Amino acid sequence: MAVIGALAAIAIAVWNHAQAPRPADALASRQLYGITLEDADGHAQSLSQWRGKILVVNFWATWCAPCVAEMPDLDKLQQEYSERNVAIIGIGIENRDRVRQFRDRLGLRMTLLAGGFDSLGLARSFGDDQGVLPYTALLSADGRLLKAHAGALGAGQLRQWLDATQ
Known about the structure:
Strands 2-1-5-4-3-6-7 form a 7-stranded mixed sheet, sandwiched between helices. The chain has a single domain, classed as 3-Layer(aba) Sandwich (Glutaredoxin), CATH 3.40.30.10. It has helices spanning 2-19, 26-33, 65-81, 96-106, 119-125, 155-165; strands at 36-39, 44-46, 54-60, 86-92, 111-114, 135-139, 145-150. The chain has 166 residues and is α/β, with parallel strands linked by helices. The longest helix has 18 residues, at 2-19.
């Protein structure tokens, strides 16, 4: 009976560890802040411009139904939290033309960047080991991973995350 109890305790600990976001190491933050991607209009945007802000990075694709569904909420939250040292950006795993068409079709105002398929590696460095889209990472002003979520993230959940950082 003691062995079963010990195995159950280990299983619970492993499950809890797997559910908690892994802290991003300094390399992941350096990688993020060290890259430059084109925005939907073809302008180069260095991600270092968001250093010092609470940063929500959403990895998405135009063909991903949950990504499309959550994007208007992300856009609304960006407008709501912009005065509170928060930036919400989307990194599409597609080319600039598709990102621009998507932005224009939905009337989005938030920053959307064209990361191409290679941006999945960046998502992986913040814990997206399975390549799930959408994938959202919340980083502190100093680049630490505070939260991460694979799959669609509700506006209420993101609002809770952001309010907890204020």
